[in-house]
Design brief:
Blueprint (H helix, E strand, L loop, with lengths): L5 E7 L2 E9 L24 E2 L4 E2 L7 E6 L2 E5 L1 H6 L7 E9 L8 E9 L4 H14 L1 E9 L2 E10 L2 E7 L21 H14 L11 H14 L3 E4 L11 H10 L11 E4 L3 H10 L1
Parallel strand pairs: 1-7
Antiparallel strand pairs: 1-2, 2-8, 3-4, 5-6, 7-9, 8-11, 9-10, 10-11, 12-13
Amino acid sequence: MAAASWKGFLSFGLVTIPIRLAPAARTERISFNQLHKVCHTRIKQPQFCPTCDRMVERNEIEKGYEYEKDQYLLFTEEELEAAEPESSRTMEILEFVRLDEVDPLYFDASYYAAPETGGAKAYHLLLEAMLESGYAGIAKVTMYSRENIVIIRAQKNGLTLHTMFYPNEIRQAADNGITDKSEVKEQERVLAKQLIENLAANFKPEKYHDTYQENLRTLIEAKAKGQKITAVPGVSKTPVVDLMEALKKSLTAKQPPSEKRPALHAVPKPAAVQKKDRKAG
């Protein structure tokens, strides 16, 4: 089980439930290290004080807020803990809302909420009541030096929690085409809806893969084996000129074309090159 990101109490009304939160998802990506081009040694990022002209140990570091250029207010860990609100210990459900009323644009990180010792009965009471009612809970919780608005969802396997962006953090779309409304013909609208219905399917996340990460793995494996890499050219795209014709062709096609990254294929080096490499080794 993943380490708990937060432990405390979940409350609604006078009911209090001890719970723990654990991350429900994490980003998977291949990372590269920075190396010195001369000797291929990994570059380190040291904690260095330019005034003392020396490296600094972790126990010598304190926190400061820059209120003017190079002027800092210093804070101890005890002072920062004293500033933590009640939501750092108790997550109180403030209200219940319909999930379809919440714009997914507000969603941030996801967590699983599980009951701690002594909280199982109240936890399952809340879970079953939320499942039957169809409501989601809105609460506040402080984690990682930030008070978050969260939405709590009930699923068959338990409660899930999603931290949310505040309204002032949502960026306004500069231009999403709404101001440039061209006249759409009724026949075009009908064909577009038909194309959407033809492409409609149940959401199955296991169907989707990160092609870029797969290509990187192929590249790494081939490099390790001394193979060369060739990229398959991608399909070029051009703006649609005849919209009606494009819609009709899309409907008659068995599988609508999808834009993909060029696939990488490992190609063994010629024998002469491999022999040369062995001599160099």
